[in-house]
Specification:
Order of helices and strands: HHEHHEHEHEEEHEHEE
Number of helices: 8
Oligomer: single chain
Number of strands: 9
Structural class: alpha+beta
Strand order of the largest sheet: 1-3-2
Distance between the termini: 39 Å
Strand content: 15-25%
């Protein structure tokens, strides 16, 4: 939308903004949608809580708007959710779990956030690191990238949580501390240490230490 434009923003514009801010959250919702489809299970078994979506970069306001325009729904409570939208309250209670609607899945696929499941092939698989906890070694394509020393416990916690989750692009901060500020600082220190010791995999933090993500550096 041009600077200074006073017209109400369009749905297309607002959805594009959400996709810029919270791609990891939307990808998590996409995966959850297809987990349910693949196993023929009720979508409620794979719905993601608002709190977890917040950690993945989608704000509570984003979630409320996505429900209001039909991109997301709360399985099993769709009627109450629609009523809340209709009366203008847009309330989503803490702990509410959300999942993509069929329309939402088609819309995100059309916009290029994800490929249609029918076009996924093993040839497009993303390179995934591997953390060998017994040896404190980080591998990529079976090649040693990093070997941690025993004192690097925070770095090991980060790598272990990535490994436990199957190496998604982004995970919530796994470091436990007395408060969020201390936990965030320990995560930033751990990421600095991981990046300082190798250049094959780059780690980044965000959300004031709320999450950590990784990217494989190609061509090295």
């Amino acid at each position: 939308m041009p600077r200074g434009h006073s017209a109400t923003p369009t749905t297309d514009y607002l959805l594009a903004r959400v996709m810029q801010r919270g791609p990891s959250g939307l990808l998590a919702l996409h995966d959850a949608f297809h987990y349910a489809k693949h196993l023929g299970r009720d979508a409620r078994q794979f719905a993601i809580s608002v709190e977890e979506l917040n950690r993945f970069g989608l704000s509570s306001a984003d979630c409320r708007w996505l429900v209001a325009v039909g991109i997301l729904t709360s399985p099993g409570t769709a009627r109450r959710t629609r009523r809340a939208v209709a009366d203008g309250s847009l309330r989503i209670k803490p702990g509410t779990a959300l999942i993509l609607t069929e329309e939402g899945q088609r819309e995100l696929t059309r916009r290029g956030l994800v490929r249609s499941a029918n076009h996924l092939t093993t040839a497009t698989a993303v390179k995934r690191p591997r953390w060998e906890a017994d040896y404190w070694e980080l591998l990529l394509d079976d090649e040693l990238v990093l070997r941690l020393i025993a004192s690097a416990t925070s770095q090991a916690v980060v790598l272990a949580d990535f490994e436990r989750r199957g190496w998604p692009r982004r995970i919530p901060n796994p470091i436990q501390a007395r408060n969020k500020r201390q936990s965030g600082q320990q995560l930033r220190d751990a990421v600095h240490g991981l990046n300082q010791k190798q250049d094959r995999i780059r780690f980044r933090t965000g959300g004031r230490g709320a999450f950590v993500e990784f990217e494989v550096v190609e061509g090295i």
